[in-house]
Amino acid sequence: MRQLLNTLYVTSEDAYLSLENDNVVVQQGDSVLGKIPLRSLESIMDFSYKGASPALMGKCAEFGLGLSFFSPRGRYYCSVLGEKNRNVLLRREQFRFADDESEALPFAQSFIVGKIYNCRWVLERTKRDHTLRVNSERISEQSEKLRQALLNACKCSSVDGLRGVEGLAAKDYFFTFDDLILRNKDDFFFQERSRRPPLDRMNALLSFIYALLTSDCVAALQGVGLDPYVGFLHTDRPGRASLALDLVEEFRPAIADRFALTLVNTGKIKPSQFEIRENGGVFLSDEGRKTVLAAWQKRKQETITHPFFKEKLQWGLVPHAQALLLSRAIRGDLDAYPPFMWK
């Protein structure tokens, strides 16, 4: 169980939520983990198997308090919405901003500034931690290019221009990505980003982890009442979760890329856990997927201090925290959306 500002996160798998007067009661077996006044909360996000009582659901609907249910792994199930729920108004604002480039641009810039900042941090941290094992000069050169890209992103006057800056920054980042791979270089190497299909083990691993991260972002956005298919940076396309892809951008380096590098550099993922298809595509085997999923769930349980809230929370809740900040920015409760910028 965790309370993040005025949102209650229930992460114990066997917790059950019930109502006592106007309080939400979090129970684990015969033990009461906590009682929180509903009037002090904006939303509840429940990651347990047992769920909540109908009485609590009814009271949340009456108070206009968001109650969303997820699997313990973060898959979104459903939300309880009442007459006072602001989801419709929130989505109207989201759609209005998405249709107006002048309104969409500040959100898109925040996503890309967060991404480039975190890309640079990944390079700088590797240079700091493994100075004798990496090409520090090349990493420093690319890091400087990313610093300039940050400035360029802030100056962009159009979303198309911002996409151009992001594309160049991604090339500069991935140019030295192979230097960050520290072992099994004959089997794990990186020349350029490839997908549909990925053409080497590193790209296969990145693509799989990006898919996991995107799913987490879809769940997080749905949980706060936003439409994950209407974005500010990625264009509309049938079946494309554009807003989720927008949100993923700032998480790719700090969460996904570092996780992939950790799996390779610690030897947790093996070259034998990949399959090479006739068309040249490389994919994780069943055993490889199980290894990655087990490590992913473990990583999501690790605790960090959120750079904006200044509170401790699990890595797995970071997308939910950022989705909450995004919803507040769209509603006008925040002057601007603060991207996740990790150190």
Automatic annotation (TrEMBL):
Entry EC number(s): 3.1.-.-
InterPro entries: Cas1 (IPR050646), CRISPR-assoc_Cas1 (IPR002729), CRISPR-assoc_Cas1_C (IPR042206), CRISPR-assoc_Cas1_DVULG (IPR019856), CRISPR-assoc_Cas1_N (IPR042211)
Name used for this protein in its record: CRISPR-associated endonuclease Cas1
Cofactor: Mg(2+); Mn(2+)
Quaternary structure, from the entry: Homodimer, forms a heterotetramer with a Cas2 homodimer.
Pfam family, one: Cas_Cas1
GO biological process, one term: maintenance of CRISPR repeat elements
Top enzyme category: hydrolase
Signal peptide: none
Family: Belongs to the CRISPR-associated endonuclease Cas1 family.
Keyword Thylakoid: no
Binding site for Mn(2+): 166, 234, 249
Keyword hit for ATP-binding: no
GO molecular function: DNA binding; DNA endonuclease activity; hydrolase activity; metal ion binding
The species this protein was found in: Bifidobacterium simiarum
Functional summary from the UniProt entry: CRISPR (clustered regularly interspaced short palindromic repeat), is an adaptive immune system that provides protection against mobile genetic elements (viruses, transposable elements and conjugative plasmids). CRISPR clusters contain spacers, sequences complementary to antecedent mobile elements, and target invading nucleic acids. CRISPR clusters are transcribed and processed into CRISPR RNA (crRNA). Acts as a dsDNA endonuclease. Involved in the integration of spacer DNA into the CRISPR cassette.
Superkingdom per UniProt: Bacteria
Keywords: Antiviral defense, DNA-binding, Endonuclease, Hydrolase, Magnesium, Manganese, Metal-binding, Nuclease
